[in-house]
Amino acid sequence: MKEQFITKLLLDTKLVLDKYGVKFWLDHGTLLGAVREDGFIPWERDIDLGAWHHTVSEDTKQRIAEDLRNLGYKVLLMPTHMNIRGNKVWLDVALYRKEKTMAVINAPIPANIIGRYLGYARAIMMSPNYHDDTGLRHYPLMLLNFICGLIPKHLRIATIGVIETLYKRAGYKTWSIPSEYFSEFTTMSFCEKQFNVPANLEKYLAFRYGKDWIIPKRNWKTANSGGVEWRR
After folding, report:
1. How far apart are CA 79 and CA 94, in angstroms?
2. Greatest Cα pair distance in the chain
3. Residue (of 82, 59, 77, 80) closest to 13 by Cα position
4. Of the candidates 29, 27, 50, 6, which has an alpha carbon nearest to the alpha carbon of residue 191?
5. CATH pick for 1-96+179-211 out of 3.40.830.10, 3.30.70.20, 3.30.460.40, 3.40.50.170
6. Which 8-state DSSP code applies to residue 123?
7. Torsion of CA 120, 126, 132, 136, to 10 degrees
8. 108 and 116 Cβ atoms separated by less than 8 Å
């Protein structure tokens, strides 16, 4: 059932992004699953796409959000990404900015236990009903979700800003990937549709997940990925 929902979310999002001419690609764990598993990674609940920030105007983002909301999804627009959620699965379109020879997303990744729980709070604020199989469970998570669900969206966005400020004061990790990986693309069939993927596919996956990327690792930590670096 989860795969049915996650596939529908991906294809609905693709339809809308294509409608507005947004060039995007499979990224992160979704790309890894498409290549290694010929499908989604079984324990994943989210979809990862990438796009260049400068190719998606604010007006286009609003139009995309409106179309997806009309399809029944919840959409949250942030400077670094677009978050789309429905049926307990979610999709992030990461918006990379080019800084010299690097593709950068200034989205904080927790560097310690405090950051980890700030990350849970941030994720819940972004999308009430957030769930993480490796994190908070049952009653604490249900309570936090309930409270956050009562907070108006504009206040949740402001709260996310406060949380991200705490990250930056304590030190945090962020994405910084050689832009050469996103300079050329090819296509591959996934969910019976054609999707853009980095042309130098295996080299990119080795950079992100290590030379043994072909071996599944259920306990893989995002903060261990290639391209994650310290910032202060």
Report:
1. 9
2. 46
3. 82
4. 6
5. 3.30.460.40
6. H
7. 40
8. no
Q: What is the DSSP letter of 183?
A: T
CA atoms of 41 and 37, how far apart (whole Å): 7
Each domain of the chain, given as residue ranges in start order, spans 1-96+179-211, 111-171
Q: pLDDT tens track of the chain, all 232 residues?
A: 467 899 999 999 999 999 999 999 999 999 999 999 999 988 887 899 999 999 999 999 999 999 999 999 999 888 888 999 887 888 999 999 999 999 998 765 555 566 666 666 666 666 555 544 444 445 565 676 677 777 777 777 777 777 667 666 655 567 789 999 999 999 999 999 999 999 999 999 999 888 888 988 877 766 566 655 545 4
105's enclosing H/E stretch is strand 102-109
- Among residues 12, 13, 44, 50, the alpha carbon closest in space to that of 29 is found at 44
How would you label 82-104 residue by residue, b for 16+ Cβ within 10 Å and e otherwise?
bbbbbeebbbbbbbbeeeeebbb
Residues 38, 44, 45, 51: what is their CA dihedral angle, to the nearest 10 degrees? -70
Q: Which two tokens stand for residue 42?
A: 């079984």
Residue type, 51: A
Separation in Å, CA 106 to CA 77, 98, 160, 161, 232? 15, 11, 14, 12, 11
pTM for the whole structure:
0.76
